[in-house]
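Exercise: predict the fold of this chain.
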Amino acid sequence: MHPPAEFRTSEIMTSSLRDRIIGPLAAALLALSTAPALAEDAAQIGRALAAASMRDWPVAEAEAARSGPMALDLVLWQRLRAGQGTWPEYRDFAARHGDWPGLALFYKRGDAVLRADLPPAEVIGWFGARRPDTLNGALALIGALQATDPAAAKAEIARFWTEQALNKAEADIFVAAYGADIAGLHDARLARLLDLGEWQAAQVALPLATPAGQALGKARLALQSGQGGVDKLILSLPEAQQQDAGLALDRFRWRVWAKMPELARDLMLERSTSPEALRDPAAWAGKRADYARLALRQGDWALAEKLAAGHFMLPGSDEFIDLEWLAGYAALRGGAPDRALARFKALEAGVTSPISVSRALYWQGRALEAQGHAARAEAAYRRAADYKSAWYGQLAGEKLGQPLDFATLGGQRAGGSLPEWRGSSLRENPVWQAGVWLIAAGEPDQGQRFLLHLAETATPEDIGRMARMMLDMRLPWHALRLAKAAAAKGAVYPDAYFPLTGLETDDLGLPPELVMAIARRESEFNHTVSSHAGALGLMQVMPDTARSMARKIGEPFDQRRLTRDAAYNARLGAAYLAGLRERFGPSVALVAAGYNAGPGRSARWLGEFGDLRGEVDPVDWVEMIPFDETRNYVMRVAEALPVYRARIQGRPVPLVPTWDLTGGGVKPAPEALRIQLARSARPLPGPRALAYFAAGGVLAEVLGPVPAVPLDQAAADPAAAGGAITPTRPARAGASATR
């Protein structure tokens, strides 16, 4: 209802209300289980984690010891990440569990306890392919390399000095140790720090730079920190330095901040000749898309294409996907379908998910139609229609007159029916085991963290197995997140990607597929979640809105129930949805946009872009929504509608995404649709069902016969951490074209 919901996940040991109240959780099943030993193991882990949350390590370890090695490692993982460990503990844990999640912090803490007297091979082995980002870590690695590979040591000295932000005390230590090796690198270091927006660290580095480096650095620092006299500093530079790519990036950011969009756009066009001229293409990409979309809305197709096409982003990134599509769309609208087709083919080659592949193929069809190639256009639409779990695949299917059949929805690539997890070798993976034990101990969100981490490197089939296990454990929100991870790799598992929860059987006075589509997007069906903006529960209702809706439908308002009672939250969210339908009619585009960004914006966009209920192309209308989050929200809600319509009714349904977008052109509120509901295949279980699952031992199947993993088994594969340049927000100064 408010943009966008960012889920708050507690630290591993937090005894959160969310985890205590979820009925179908593993811990609840274990509490009812006829396997006392299994239940006690989980209870002991839960007590150990609770003690660890209070940093009571002796009690945590004593409780964990009563359970076994996995419990001890979970507590140790938390203690080491808290910086409470010795060097041997860090070294040995990395050898056993180098593939666990959260290791960036783990390694940072471990680097802090490295000692100068450690054997060089031990230090080099600790880092592996990872590079240090702390002074102590760098000193340790450089010392080890100097004893074994002096050339590698010199390279690491140069890398660390030019890339890392240090305070004055740290910089002084490094200069004292390696001054001769870094004498010629101070200008490069200053430029790098300024590129990162680390202008305070850059001030420390400034005196070490050459006179020319200092002059350029002072101009950049003035821009970043909002100092006066910037124009004079820039104009005093030699022409070559005035064209410096880093200075251009600072000038661009300053113009954006100063609300000078035309000058910022002109500088963007001037610099969009190569990745080097932009210094960091990603730093320009967000505003590049904004300016291109603004040009589209103003009907300036040539400018929009020029802005979008000069992005220089690598295939696969979100920015590449958006900008490559924008360049193709602008070319198509500007009467150049040949250039558009080339862009849409490049987009297809650079993506893997059904959402993006179907988008590329659908627009290839549109470009081919514009060229007069009807047969080739139909072939492109047929390929796009293979991805009917995605909005553009559904639009292609509509063009071809195809229905949506839930039974065949996962036919793309490696998806389809969820594979069985029982008997799988996946169960021998220590990351899988840790995740399952966390779920059993009442920490489902942290358990999911382990499973999602495992999904990053797992095959789509193994991700499907984890998703099926989550459905078996009555955790549809975790199943959905895993299904999204599989979809990103090109495999759709419909049962988990569009799960049923029992909500679809409630009579809320609205089409059930609409309620399911909104809840899926808002909370992923997690009725206990809160957003940073304060939205609560299944439908992510703001407390003030919930209070108003409770009054409207005659229910008492209780804010605590918003994250405890899914049905209560659904009634209040549905009441708000009903109000949007009364205002905008059944158009899912207007209703979903209003739910996400506010009804005022839906009304404003009707005025700005035209009325999609009869005046303009509804697909174009959705693509012109200026907010990335809302545009994506509308597409994801719209694509879930026919899927849930088919799943709830238990039969294939006509594909009518255009009707859904426009509401059939209806502007007043229609009567509520009457749909005969099929009973959910997976309703939320009642007490009898819970008792059945406990007695049947679903959790015992998950946890019971898992082979023990030897403590000396090592699986080290740490991932390097990355970061993005973040624009600074200096104090505002006078506007200047020089800047």
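Check your answer against the key: Residues 628-649 form the longest helix (22 residues).
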